[in-house]
Write a structure and sequence with these properties.
Elements lengths: L2 H11 L6 H24 L4 H12 L3 H9 L3 H7 L12 H10 L3 H11 L1 H18 L2 H33 L5
Length: about 180
């Protein structure tokens, strides 16, 4: 299916009152999924078993490792993907950087974070940020969360859908 056909199909499926921003986000998501499939076709990927092994090995970390991760920062990753998130604090931890990315959501940035740190980590940080912000009760911070929520949740939903589609595609051989 050509790019033009994919966009035409998308436009047919969207409601009449959809905003241009929502259309752009949907196209951005489709482009990211297609790039992922192209990358998989070009470079290969990991099997479900390999992915589960990676997740299990991360989950087995002890409390000390988790505490270290909360204060650690993956400088190389953030040099590439963190432009402007915490410019006043060059030592901000990964958790702080992810929180900033969640408050200024961009699908590609959140997708990069999920690919690097894990979708579970990204979701965990989002839930923690929402819970702590609501508990603190500062109106300005709550407003930021409320503004970011629909975008972040749409991005997370799209990532889950992409993973599900990728797993289904990996399980069923493509017909030539």
């Amino acid at each position: 299916m050509s790019t033009k056909e994919i966009v035409a199909d998308l436009l047919e499926r969207l409601p009449e009152e959809v905003s241009l921003r929502e259309v752009a986000r949907e196209i951005e998501f489709i482009a990211a999924v297609r790039e992922g499939f192209e990358s998989y076709d070009r470079d290969g990927g990991t099997t479900i078993d390999e992915t589960q092994a990676k997740i299990s090995s991360r989950a087995k970390g002890n409390k000390t490792q988790i505490e270290e991760e909360q204060t650690a920062r993956d400088r190389v990753f953030w040099e590439v993907h963190g432009g402007g998130l915490a410019w006043s604090n060059s030592d901000a931890s990964d958790s702080v950087m992810v929180a900033q990315a969640l408050l200024a959501p961009s699908f590609h940035r959140l997708l990069d974070i999920a690919a690097h740190f894990g979708l579970g980590f990204l979701e965990e940080q989002w839930n923690k940020l929402r819970k702590e912000t609501m508990a603190a009760g500062y109106p300005e911070e709550i407003q930021k969360i409320m503004r970011a929520a629909p975008i972040v949740e749409r991005c997370l939903r799209h990532m889950h859908e992409g993973l599900k589609a990728g797993a289904m595609a990996a399980a069923v051989p493509l017909q030539s």
